[in-house]
Amino acid sequence: MSRVALLLALACAAAIAGWTFHQSAEDRKTDDSPGTATSAPQSSTETPSPTPAPAPVHVDYTEGPASPDGIGKFFHGREISQVMGHPAIGWLERGEREQEEAPSKAIAAIDLKPGDVIADIGAGSGYYSFRISPKIPQGKVVAVDIQPEMLNFLKEKSAELGISNVQPHLGKIDDLMLPEASLDAALMVDAYHEFSHPREMLASLHKALKPGGRIFLLEFRGEDPRVPIKPLHKMTEAQARLELESAGFEFVSNLRPLPWQHFMIFRRP
């Protein structure tokens, strides 16, 4: 082959190789590079399917020997504790409560709109009810309790404090006795573990909450041996989630702002 022919052959080969490399790079850009017209994800007008709500599960109660602080009735393996009655109002209203439990932090974390209706279930002396009421000046706190003595105390204190948006309400051991979809939120402070009929109460609460309504559940931390509360009057997060999720509620979060208690938030789907 002459030198001229050899040079022409090499030039053609280089041109072909360069064209091939260019095509390969373009192919890679089309397949892999973000921001190109062909690789950009196509927008969709379809609404993502929501996560299916947990379906309520019927769980039977079981019975066994009662512990010193229990009633011998079990729900999801947890023994239900004895009820702290109205003679304990002094303990609920004790001056050390802020230092020990920091309820002001809990109340600050309860996010409500001015016109919301919230049920304080197991309201007792109304310690939380009266402190929440200023957050909802156009709404109300339905202070639910099964003990008339507690409700009488609430009525007297409402008059003493001049608070008109705390409504004492007599419930039953297995029913809140509240209208369907009447609540924006519910609060249970160290009370749920004492419910003698938690399955029925959770079903009643599910009915009374509006869709999207929240539950603020405060319980002394059962995982923490440093919390100086009797074991049956404490709950673990895992146990609380088991019971409420089985009743059809969604777990949202555990804020953990308090020295002794869980601050768990659940939602009705």
Automatic annotation (TrEMBL):
* Domain of life, per lineage: Bacteria
Q: Which GO terms describe its biological process?
A: methylation
Q: Which UniProt keywords apply?
A: Methyltransferase, Signal, Transferase
**Stored Pfam families:** Methyltransf_25
Q: Enumerate the GO terms in the molecular function aspect.
A: methyltransferase activity
CDD domains the record matches: AdoMet_MTases (cd02440)
Q: How far does the signal peptide extend, from start to end residue? A: 1-17
- Start and end residues of each Methyltransferase domain: 118-213
Q: List the biased-composition ranges (Low complexity).
A: 36-48
- Annotated stretches, region: Disordered: 24-63
Q: Which InterPro entries match?
A: Methyltransf_25, SAM-dependent_MTases_sf
Protein name, as recorded: Class I SAM-dependent methyltransferase
Q: Which classification does the entry list for the species? A: Bacteria, Pseudomonadati, Verrucomicrobiota, Verrucomicrobiia, Verrucomicrobiales
